[in-house]
Fold Glycoside hydrolase family 1 protein.
Amino acid sequence: MQSNTERFPKGFLWGGAVAANQCEGAYNEDGKGLSTQDIAPRGIIGKITKEPTEDNLKLIGIDFYHRYKEDIKLFAQMGFKTFRTSIAWSRIFPNGDDAMPNERGLQFYDDLFDECLKYGMEPLVTISHYETPLALSKNYDGWVNRKLIGFFENYCKTIFDRYKNKVKYWLTFNEINSVLHQPYMSGGIFTDKEKLTKQDLYQAIHHELVASAMAVKIGHEMMPGAKIGCMILGVPNYPLTPDPSDVIEAMKQDRENLYFADVHVRGVYPKYMDKYFKDNNIKIIMEPGDAEVLKNTVDFVSFSYYMSSCATSDLTKAKGASGNIISGVPNPYLESSQWGWQIDPKGLRYILNLYYDRYQKPLFIVENGLGAVDELVIGKDGNKTVDDDYRIKYLNDHLVQVAKAIEDGVDVMGYTSWGCIDLVSASTAEFKKRYGFIYVDRNNDGTGTLERYKKKSFNWYKEVIRTNGKNLI
C-alpha cells in the first residue's frame, strides 16, 4: 500500500443502508397496501399471521416515514456520499397488480430523494427489498407465479419514469439468493417452506432472474446514464479441513450463491447447474424470449457481507457444529458476535477478490455491520450516547480489508454500512439487535420516545469519510 491517502479511490461512495420495511413504519398510511412484512410478527423468521399484529415492530419501525428529514440531516452530518434505501412496492402499487399507481406513495419517495440530493447524497435504491405486496403473495404464491414478472415490469417502469432524474444507482432484488433459505421473506412465496418443492422454488428463482434482467433492460432504455446492479448475500465458504472432500463441499456451497450472480453478470445459466437440476429432477420452464432477456446484464455487482462459513462432507469432524444463519459449520479460528455470526474481516477481502476475479465488474459493498445490544449512557458532554467501541473495531477491521482488496486490484465502488441508524430486525422483528451510528429510543416491547442520539461510532465514521479512510488503523 503506497500511502494512507490512496487507500480508497477518489469519488468512493461512502454511506449507509436501510430498508423501507425496517424503518419507515406508516404501514397503512397514504394508500399503502399490506406487504409480506406487515404480517410477520416478532419471533421466528418466516412466521406468518393472518393480519398485522401489535408485536410486529415494523408497523411503526423508527417512524422514518415522518422523520426522514431529521435522519437525512444526521447522515449528511456524517458526510454520506450515498444513502441506500428501498422503495416499498406496496406503497406504489398497494396490491401489486393495480392498474394505476398510488400518487401519495410516489410523492413520498420524490420528497425523500429530494432531501438526499439537497445534501449532495446520491440515492442508491433497491427496487424489491424483502417486502412483496401481500396480495401478490396470497393470490399468486409470490414469485412461483410467472405473472409477477409483468407486475414487476410495470412497477419498474413506473418508478424509473418518476425518478429517472433523481436516482442514478439501482439494485433489483435484495439478497436474491436468500430465497433458498427464506422463500416467504425473500420471494413472497406463500406456500409453507416445508411443503415447497424444489421444482417450484427454482422456477420462482427463474422468474425473479428474468424480472431482474428485464429491469436492467428497461432501466437502460429509460435512464441511459443509470447504473443498475444485482445484490446477493455474500458468504464465502471455506473447507473445514484440507480433506479434498471438504474442498469439493465448499465449492458446491459456494455455487449455491454464485449461481445467482453468474446469471446476472454472464446472462446465461452456468453449466454446473445442469447437473444440479438433473440430480433433483428440476426442469426449468423457460418461455420464448427468456434467454434473450437474460442477456441484459448488470453494470455492477453489489453484496452484503457479515460472516464467512465452513463446509465439510463429514459433520463428525466439526466439534460443536451448531451452524450459522447460512448452511455451514463454525470456523474454529474465528470469534462470534452476540448473535452467533462469526466475525471474519479477512473474509471480506477474500470475497471481493473472488467476485472480481470471476466477473471483472465493479463491486459495491452495500451491507456490512455489527448487530449488538447497545447501552445508552450519559457522555462527557452531558448528552446521551453509546460507547460502541466494539462496533468501531468491527467496522475498522473490515474497512482495512477493503483497502487491501483495492490494493489487490479490485474495483470497489463504495461501502454502505448496514443499519446506519437503528432499525427493526428483518428476521425477528425485534429492536434489541442494533447496527446504527445513531441510537433510536425504542425497545422490544414497543415502548420508547423514538428520539435519536449519536453513538460514539457516529463521529468515528464521520472522520472515516472526511479522510477517505486515512484514519483507519
Remarks:
- The radius of gyration is 21 Å.
- The chain has one domain: 4-466.
- Confidence is low (pLDDT under 50) at residues 320-325.
- The domain at 4-466 is CATH 3.20.20.80 (TIM Barrel).
